[in-house]
Amino acid sequence: FLLLIYCIGQAQNDNFNLLIGTYTSGCVSKGIYVYEFNSKTGDFSFKNVSEKTVNPSFVSVSEDNKFVYSVNENAAQSKVSSFGFDAVTGKLDFVNSQDSRGADPCYVINDDKNVIVANYSGGNISVFGKNSDGSITEAKQVVQHYGKGTNVKRQEGPHVHMVYFSPDRKFVLSNDLGNDKLYSYAYTSNSIKEVLKVKDSVSLSSGSGPRHLTFSKDGKYVYLLQELNGALTTFCYSKGKLKKVDETTVLSKDFKGTFSSADIHISPDGKFLYATNRGEANDISIFKILKNGRLESEGQTSTLGKGPRNFAIDPTGNFLLVAHQYTNNIVVFKRNLTTGSITDTGKRIDLCSPVCLVFTEN
């Protein structure tokens, strides 16, 4: 009898909710999709979908797993939305939305006090307070970036591409693709107006276009992926301060063609780093993370689709899922936990323009 209970408990732990943010304008999509994903087999099943919501191209789940926050990327009419979330059924109930205070929000994070959004075209960061019912207040702070870069087409002004909590939640890091800068903001969660205050900023190679970053498992290093030149930069990180220590590239030696670096994540065990590349590359680079935080390339693997904009590794590390914006599917790869390599399972989730993948408890 005890064994039976244990087995049932184990079986439940193999399953996670997979939330998928999409673009709703180019093809038929209702918005945010919820699937059940089995981390032992790589199998999945549809659970639920939001009622019509506009371009939820990035989503974030609250720590208590009861709310989902999404951007609504829609030029000058962009918003940020809150949904009640039932983790068992996957049901999403719209709570409220607010003006994003900057065009084309592309990233959102949250903690128990605030929802923070990166507005790409607006070139700014918006901070929204949270109410006890999960709804969000009007923006209580908007931090505007300035400047431009040398890539005339892409860097005509600031383009905030990400906001990201430091592991201790005392800082928020933000990279700006438009002005080639990485900012570190001191974070005071319960402040009325000045939630974010600049602590440090680092200038990157001219025309590099910093897009996404992630922290090493021990929190001592930050890895920053640059969209426009394919660079992958390693920084030492301590108390909001950043110091560049190394740089490599996600491009293979013989690659000729267009590329557009996209997303970056580290395996749950902290041993491997992965980064996707779009354009004509459509591949994922694999790096071994060495003891000193440096990266050793293990080569590239095709993502088997076009526009691998976002990807996610399930919490057990067994599978890596790549969302393809242009081939309208999510490819499920099996991960080798020892070598970090990935192999195609043949499994596909077919959806309109999937661009954000988030795993959460079910």
Question: In words, what does this structure look like?
Answer:
The protein is mainly beta and 362 residues long. Helices cover 4% and strands 53% of the residues. The protein has 1 helix and 28 strands. It has one helix spanning 2-14, and strands spanning 15-22, 33-38, 44-49, 59-61, 67-72, 79-86, 91-99, 105-110, 114-119, 124-130, 136-144, 160-165, 171-176, 181-187, 196-203, 210-215, 221-226, 231-238, 241-249, 261-266, 272-277, 283-289, 295-302, 308-313, 319-324, 329-335, 342-350, 354-361. The strands form 7 sheets. It has a 4-stranded antiparallel sheet. A 4-stranded antiparallel sheet has the order 4-5-6-7, with no helix packed on it. It has a 4-stranded antiparallel sheet with strand order 8-9-10-11, with no helix packed on it. Strand 4 (59-61) and strand 5 (67-72) form a beta hairpin. The longest helix has 13 residues, at 2-14. The protein is globular. The mean pLDDT is 96.
Describe the structure in brief.
The chain is mainly β and 362 residues long. Helices cover 4% and strands 53% of the residues. The protein has a 4-stranded antiparallel β-sheet with strand order 3-2-1-28. A 4-stranded antiparallel β-sheet has the order 4-5-6-7, with no helix packed on it. Strands 8-9-10-11 form a 4-stranded antiparallel β-sheet, with no helix packed on it.
Q: What proportion of the residues is helical, as a percent range?
A: under 10%
Shape field: globular
The average pLDDT value, as a whole number, equals 96
Q: What proportion of the residues form beta strands (DSSP E)?
A: over 45%
Radius of gyration: 19 Å
- Which consecutive residue ranges, at least 5 long each, have pLDDT under 50? none
Largest sheet: 4 strands, antiparallel
Question: How far apart are the termini?
Answer: 24 Å
Total helical segments: 1
Report the strand count.
Answer: 28
Going across the major beta sheet, what is the strand order? 3-2-1-28
Structural class: mainly beta
